[in-house]
Design goal:
The complex is a heterotrimer of chains A (317), B (548) and C (116). Helices cover 35% and strands 20% of the residues of chain A. Chain A has helices spanning 14-47, 64-92, 199-209, 218-228, 232-235, 266-274, 297-309, and strands at 100-107, 110-114, 120-122, 124-128, 133-139, 144-148, 153-157, 163-167, 173-179, 192-197, 253-255, 261-263. In chain A, the strands form three sheets. Chain A has a five-stranded mixed β-sheet with strand order 3-2-1-5-8, with helices on one face. Chain B has helices at 25-29, 34-62, 73-109, 117-139, 153-157, 162-189, 202-234, 247-281, 288-301, 317-344, 354-377, 379-385, 389-419, 425-452, 466-492, and strands at residues 527-530, 543-546. Chain B is globular, with a radius of gyration of 23 Å. Helices cover 65% and strands 1% of the residues of chain B. A two-stranded antiparallel sheet of chain B has the order 1-2. Chain C has 116 residues and is an all-alpha fold. Chains in contact: A-B, A-C, B-C. At the A-B interface, helix 1, helix 2, strand 7 and strand 9 of A face helix 3, helix 5, helix 8, helix 9 and helix 10 of B.
Chain lengths: 317, 548, 116
């Protein structure tokens, strides 16, 4: 294990250090409030045991102010920590705009990673030190959970949905990655490694591994899939089938047949491919077939990455 | 043992004890006497405790080495699943309410039985039926979904006897619901003259609170598990996303029951401890109404915190913030009880016997479990430690360090009343201390393992964690010895030469101590009338006897 | 003493009826939670998949649903009538007696109603 106190995991990011500080100080406060209780209990038990002849007159049986005091004061003190903990928590879900997006797909019993420039990894994830990384995650089968103890972050991967978290690993090193949601037979051995590299090493690694062989970037792989699966047959400008245009759709508002409007995000695009009748665009018929039986989540990721890269009208597929 | 109340009818002339009222199998298996049903439950839950403990032994043995070489991956998954399922539904949930509650609720309020005695017997038979089905599952190879049955693992991908297990748990739920119904009606409608709500023992208040949870939460589990079985058997897409279902829907429904379920497991224990403390201290509880209403508050707020099991599940962060706040709020009533018990000991008249040792041990371990629960309620901390051994340690501190300890304390305290015999006090004190030491050695290292990043439900782990696992397993062995001791000396006390108990060996207040040990068939001779406060120490005949 | 035993553990018939009513209300509360759970699940799926849900509803068979509802309602009516019949038929009811269970059959007429 690299560094750190004995029996304490290494802290690889600023967030991790904050979490350690939080639990340390909260632990200290609870000890301060609890120790007197234990001491008093022990003292009373010894002092007032039956064989002893001590003054037992006027033993109290009720006191409203004392009751209110020891109910409300610890509660308010704890709320202070609640605010701190909640703010730290919300942080995990607010990635900076320049975070590198990496797709994660978990399946029984392995981790698959897709870098935006096409690099693909299994069970090992290389990231640059000191740069924010955002993970966009889903599962191919059951619920898994992405957990890197050194970063003090964890997020479940749910089939049929995208979940995400971001981190900024400052200290280069190799940190274990573990699945933290029981997922069947090989749950215990579904491990991996997060490899945080200093910027130069990372650049070198990227140069060696980009393009995933011949697929090109993730978006380019998606463009190829879009062609090969015949998506432009309906969604292309020259199509006779009435289907919503997809150029530049990511981040734009979409009016649904139910009357609601939503902003097209990863989840919406993925649902539209796998469960097209879940949310139908206003003015269109629910005739798109599902591609859930022919596409793996990694392929859906590629398609979504491609759609994200398109612009309205000019690059219309 | 300072105060012996006078009896108008000395015990020797009293009506037959309930134990002597018929010796046939029929008189036991078709009994409607709540006291006999309590003993039927005692034997059954002890049996299931052994089954669950056997699974625990397999787990701790396998975890001695990092390679997971005792059990296969699948075998280990089945071991911890059976451990959880059996311990939660067939031991912890019925233990205090169906053994001590069944026996004491009518007697403590001055009634001759529960409101629906035949329903009480039915509850036991339903429990046995579901238990037999569970045994069938265990013998047949077990189930591998964890006691939490998360979808779509349980509804689509798992290979074990999922549906059979679900049916067993479904059936056991009705035993619980009927028990809760029985307790609520009994407490409302069968209190003796003068037993107003302000004179109820705190044991009754906590059983009333737990019965509310029994009745309102258990049905939700029943229907949720039925939906899982339906998806597994006929493929309706409730939780399977490939069919448009939502895996998180299961978690919401499951935890809506299972969080109140953990309060089911701890509320009766809190009630027992209030009785143990006041009896050992020979002193009225400090803040009676605060302690009584704290039980109700725990039951009510306990229904509003289920989302704290789902902070990293993909649930909305704003929902998580609300659940976190409420989870902190639910700790307040528990803290109130602990403070009140402490002040009760001030200027008290304390006898340090085994029941008090169990009660004090409970308080220490329950507080440790509760504070780590508060840590888990803190969002940013939970993200790191959820689904790790930190959570495992937390809930074992509450359920084992708390509930099981309180169950043993109550069993010792009321043993003379239930059986009419006295157990060996020296051995009991040794057992209590052994249990408390063994428990801490077993579970404290698990907090450390959790923070270091050891996930739950793993039997293959990094070698650097082995030291802590070995310590934990050694503690478990000590704990097992500690639990085995009461089995020996309690049964020993039942043998022909055992010492007989007087009506009130502890000099404690409460209606149960005014009747003989063991009580007669209808609990009292004549109709008890209550004229004084509960815990009315120093003892001077807190009830008058109406022989009319 | 026989009267006392008849409604034991209650002192008289009025108290026993009172307790029975409370017991039934509590049982109904638990049943509400039971069906509440399934309605909650159905509602969640309905909200998540509006158009699909509406489309699926179009596949339901009206005649089957109507027949099912009719059977449910009339069977509840029959059960209520059977209970009234049993109450009215006097001896032959199931009294509670002592500490062991004794099972006595209700009259055959009422049994027929229950079977219906």
């Amino acid at each position: 294990m690299s560094g750190g106190i004995l029996f304490w995991p290494p802290a690889a990011s600023h967030h991790a250090e904050q979490v350690d500080l939080l639990i340390g100080s909260f632990g200290a406060m609870t000890w301060l409030l609890t120790l007197p209780v234990f001491v008093l209990m022990a003292w009373f038990t010894i002092r007032y045991r039956r064989s002893r002849d001590v003054n037992r007159d006027h033993a109290p049986t009720r006191n409203l102010w004392v009751e209110l005091g020891w109910s409300i004061i610890p509660f308010i003190l704890t709320l202070g920590f609640y605010v701190w903990a909640t703010m730290l928590f919300l942080d995990i879900y607010r990635p900076p705009a320049d975070a590198v997006p990496i797709h994660v797909v978990a399946k029984q019993w392995m981790w698959k990673f897709q870098h935006p420039d096409g690099a693909r990894e299994i069970n090992a994830l290389h990231v640059p030190a000191g740069r924010p990384v955002k993970l966009i995650m889903t599962s191919e089968d059951v619920i898994h959970s992405f957990y890197v103890p050194a970063l003090r972050v964890k997020q479940d991967l749910v089939p049929g949905r995208y979940t995400s978290l971001w981190f900024d690993a400052e200290k280069p090193g190799r940190y274990p990655l573990r699945c933290a949601e029981f997922c069947g037979t090989d749950h215990s051995v579904m491990g991996g490694m997060l490899i945080v590299m200093p910027p130069q090493d990372y650049a070198a690694w990227l140069a060696r591994n980009r393009d995933g062989g011949t697929d090109g970037t993730l978006a380019q792989a998606g463009a190829r899939l879009f062609r090969d699966l015949g998506c432009s047959g309906c969604h292309g400008a020259a199509s006779t089938v009435k289907a919503p245009p997809l150029g530049g759709i990511f981040g734009r508002p979409v009016a649904l047949s139910s009357g609601d409007t939503l902003i097209a995000d990863d989840q919406y695009l993925s649902d539209s491919i796998l469960l097209p009748n879940k949310q139908v665009v206003a003015g269109y018929d629910p005739i798109m077939p599902t591609y859930g039986n022919v596409l793996r989540p990694e392929q859906v990721n590629a398609l979504v990455a491609y759609l994200k890269s398109t612009r309205a009208s000019k690059d219309s597929p | 043992m300072t105060d012996e109340p006078r009896f108008e009818h000395p015990p020797e002339e009293a009506a037959t004890s309930y134990l002597a009222d018929g010796y046939s199998l029929r008189s036991w298996f078709l009994t409607t006497d709540h006291k006999r049903i309590a003993l039927l439950y005692l034997v059954s839950i002890t049996f299931f405790f052994l089954v669950g403990a056997g699974a625990a032994a397999l787990i701790r043995l396998d975890l001695l080495t990092p390679q997971g070489d005792l059990l296969s991956n699948d075998g280990y998954n089945r071991a911890f699943s059976i451990h959880g399922i059996v311990m939660v539904w067939f031991f912890l949930i019925p233990a205090i309410p169906n053994v001590l509650g069944n026996f004491l609720v009518p007697i403590m309020i001055g009634a001759r039985d529960l409101a629906f005695p035949r329903l009480n017997l039915l509850s036991w038979y339903i429990y046995i039926l579901s238990g037999l089905l569970t045994l069938y599952v265990v013998v047949g190879g077990g189930v591998d979904t964890g006691w939490t049955f998360y979808t779509p693992l349980s509804s689509v991908y798992a290979n074990g006897a999922v549906v059979a297990t679900i049916v067993a748990v479904f059936i056991s739920g009705f035993s619980t619901i009927l028990t809760g119904l029985n307790f609520i009606v009994t407490i409302h409608k069968l209190r003796a003259p003068g037993m107003t709500w302000s004179r109820l023992p705190l044991f009754i208040w906590s059983h009333y609170a737990v019965s509310i949870i029994f009745v309102l939460a258990t049905p939700v589990l029943a229907i949720t598990l039925l939906l899982v079985a339906a998806e597994r058997l006929i493929g309706i897409g409730v939780f399977d996303p490939r069919l448009g279902g939502d895996p998180l829907l299961f978690q919401h429904l499951f935890w809506f029951y299972s969080h109140p379920a953990v309060y089911i497991m701890v509320l009766p224990a809190l009630g027992v401890v209030s009785e143990l403390i006041t009896a050992a201290a020979h002193k009225r509880i400090f803040g009676y109404w605060f302690v009584a209403f704290a039980s109700i508050a725990i039951a009510v707020i306990g229904f509003m915190v289920w989302g704290h099991h789902m902070f990293v599940s993909g649930q909305s962060v704003y929902a998580s913030a609300v659940f976190s706040f409420l989870s902190i709020a639910v700790a307040v009533p528990s803290a109130i009880k602990v403070y009140n018990w402490t002040v009760t000991l001030y200027k008290a008249d304390i006898a340090i016997d085994a029941p008090l040792l169990f009660a004090l041990g409970f308080i220490g371990l329950f507080v440790a479990g509760g504070l780590t629960g508060l840590m888990l309620a803190m969002l940013a901390i939970d993200v790191h430690v959820t689904d790790t051994y930190f959570v495992v340690a937390h809930f074992h501190y509450i359920m084992v360090g708390g509930s099981v300890t309180a169950f043993f304390g109550g069993l010792h305290f009321w043993w003379p009343k239930i059986t009419g015999r006295l157990y060996n006090e020296t051995l009991a004190r040794i057992a209590a201390i052994l249990i408390l030491i063994g428990f801490n050695i077993t579970f404290f290292p698990q907090f450390m393992l959790g923070y270091e990043g050891m996930p739950r439900r793993y039997h293959v782990y990094p070698p650097e964690f082995q030291v802590l696992h070995v310590i934990s397993s050694m503690g478990a062995a000590l704990l097992a010895i500690g639990y085995a001791m009461p089995a020996v000396y309690l049964i020993w006390s039942l043998l022909p030469g055992g010492r007989r108990a007087p009506a009130n060996p502890w000099g404690a207040s409460g209606l149960e101590w005014t009747t003989s040990s063991p009580p007669p068939q209808h609990n009292f001779i004549g109709q008890p009338v209550v004229v004084r406060q509960p815990y009315d120490y120093p003892l001077a005949h807190p009830v008058s006897r109406d022989d009319g | 003493m026989a009267e006392e035993e008849r409604f034991a553990p209650f002192a008289d018939a009025a108290r026993a009826r009172d307790a029975d009513r409370l017991g039934m209300l509590i049982f109904l509360a638990s049943e509400i939670m039971l069906f509440g759970g399934i309605f909650a699940a159905a509602l969640a799926l309905r909200l998540e998949h509006g158009p699909d849900y509406a489309a699926a509803a179009g596949h339901l068979k009206l005649w089957l649903g109507t027949a099912n509802t009719a059977i449910l309602l009339t069977s509840s009516l029959m059960a209520a009538l059977a209970a009234l019949c049993a109450a009215a038929s006097g001896p032959g009811r199931m009294p509670y007696s002592g500490t062991t269970l004794r099972i006595l059959p209700p009259s055959w007429r009422c049994m027929a109603l229950i079977a219906l």
